[in-house]
Predict the structure.
Amino acid sequence: MSSMSLRMRLFLLILPPLLLVSVLLGIWRFEVAQRTSEDLFDRSLLAAALAISRDVAISEGDALSPQTRRFISDAGGGEMFYHVTGPGGIYVTGYAYPPRSEDPAGKDGPQFFVADYRGEPVRVMRMFETTTIGNLTGETVVTVWQRVSDRNAFAAALAFRAAALIAGLMAALALVVWFGVQIGLRPLNDLQDAIQRRSPDDLGHIRRPVPKEVSGIVATLNRLFSQVQGSIEAHQAFISDAAHQLRNPASALLSLAETLPDVRGPGARRQHQEKLVAAARKSARLANQLLSLERLRYEGARACERLDLSDTAAQVCSDLGPAVLSRDLEFEFARAPDPLAVEGDPVLIGEAITNLIENALTHGGPGMTRITVRTQRGGDGGGEAVLLVEDDGAGIPPDQRETAFRRFGQLRSGDGSGLGLSIVRDVMRRHGGTVRLLPAGRGTAVRISLPRL
């Protein structure tokens, strides 16, 4: 059904109920035709009996009039048979042996019954009247009958005509539905043609008039186009910013590598090599941050698992410990006494913690003497896993805190890329957590929190 056209779907939804109704209508019409024909044929039998009784009375049993004979022979329900007896049961005219009723009824009014005549069922009408034939006055019995098969054939012919009429109407209705649906779906076909004629770069809204039933789909498409357009623009801006950010470290790295052969003296050469290594590390770190931002763009990149925030923070501190201690800084990690179980991507959460510590190293300034990392429970009832990174460096002015979280936003010229806090914020949003700057007398205090399991 998934590949079936909408036109065929509507056709199959509309036509079967109509077919069912037509079948039920045909059955009902057949039954009505049978009842109607039975009533009409019985009335014909009665009319024939009255005509025969009149002719017998007028001709005193001699013969039937030509009009009565034509009436009997032209009856719509088939050939009619008759038998007449006069006063005292004397045979007057008609067929010699009429059908008999096994359960004779009274003589009040016409009698109708089904009997057997020469091996086949017949419908019989018997009528009693008082008449005078010659010089005899008494009860005259007129019996008229028809074959049941003739009646049924006539009723079947009527029902067949009704069925043929219904079938013709259904065929006409099927054609009307088929081509009517095609005409009704023409706005959808026009919409499809309009979308097909669009170029891949045209993501503007669809503004052509459409039926009310399709307006929801068009609104959804327009919303999707807007989201795709926004995503493309954000991606293009990211690529432009990333290219701009990578240009300077790459140029510096290339310049240091090209000038290294010209450096003379062991001390100067060692100093030049240290600068080259530092530039390479900076470029590698910037590339890793850009890859982290790109990974955060895709929901499928998440590999969520259960982890302990304290364990992740301890691993990051262990990896960055040599770099911190090489700058003669006091570096402390205070672990929460209880496990802080959270669900998330360990790589992204570790990247967020790494960015917080490296931000402190990069922007703390020459006056910074310590960096402290602590994990603890927080929130109402301890429902959050909290990590704090504090330093006593230069700090972030209150009026520039929003700028600090902006992508490629730098508060002052320096070695940073302006991606650290932006990555932290995106990681926390992806995991249902928060990040915020806390008031600090000196330096910077950053708090991140994640829902505990």
The chain has a mean pLDDT of 80. Residues 132 and 138 are 6 Å apart (CA to CA).
